[in-house]
Amino acid sequence: MTSQPLVDTMGNMLMWNGDIFRMSGVEKDTMESDTTLLSRHLSTCQTPTQVLECMASITGPWAMVYLQETTNTLWFGRDFFGRQSLLISSTPDRLSLSSCVTSDMDTFTELPASGLFSCSLSPGGQLGQVRLYPWDCMVDQVDSDKNTSLQYTISSQTIRCPVRLDQFNPSTVPASPLPHSDSANSLFQQLLSQPDIDTMVDQFTDLLRAAVRTRITNQPGLCKDCVTTKLSSPCPHSSVAVLFSGGLDSCVLAHLAAEQLPPGQPLHLLNVAFQQGGGGFDVPDRLTGIQAFKVRRRGGQLLVDTNSES
Length: 310
Prior knowledge:
The protein has helices spanning 34-42, 48-56, 184-192, 195-217, 224-229, 248-260, 284-296; strands at residues 6-7, 13-18, 22-23, 58-59, 62-68, 73-78, 87-91, 94-98, 109-110, 115-121, 127-134, 153-154, 241-243, 268-274, 300-306. It has 7 helices and 15 strands. The model has no long low-confidence stretch (mean pLDDT 84).
């Protein structure tokens, strides 16, 4: 656990909300927090290019604000998919950033996940021009007029996009004609008998399993009680949960998550239901969740009832 904001020995200040699953060229120490890891690497950056390369090397969701004392520059932004919240409110003489605000703070808008922003700071506290370093795969889609709360210029220098959109293949593999079948099981077996389809299914399963493994292994492995007592990881209690509707997606994720957990550590399946007009909670997701849990029979199912006052 690392207190924030984190200030290094040179006076640079980092506020970080994210997960570093991987960092290119860096051997992660599982005992070091992501905040101190990133702060340590950002402290070696002297130029905008080095900051952009450092942030582009991160695999994982993030939002960050970094005050680079050595250059009097404020850096801020979100990952390519905008998975973490970062809100902004700006006036000619003030710039405010926050991960969350109250409903009455209506001057805040969501910072676009268009790249990494920077703003120079003068010794007198005056704000310089805000500059956007866009993701290199979406330069043509960036338009500074779309966000009226923040005026910025677009730099010709870019940050490397973590997803190469030009590598996606829009074509489909033609399937051989299949005989008519009234059985879903028979249809699936016929599809999987085709080598191209069978290969794609195996590749997708491997990718999904790897993604779940990354998510589970990059967390402390401790429940909220054992975190406070600083028990060595893993603890015998549940530290991983899956929102479980009983549908195909949540069943597959629950199965893959259970594969990755240490032996004996339970998996919690959270089934949320909103109260209906008659006062009950027997919504479709509740019924399918209970039915799927009876088939699966591993871990613990927690039924979460939510009413209009919750």
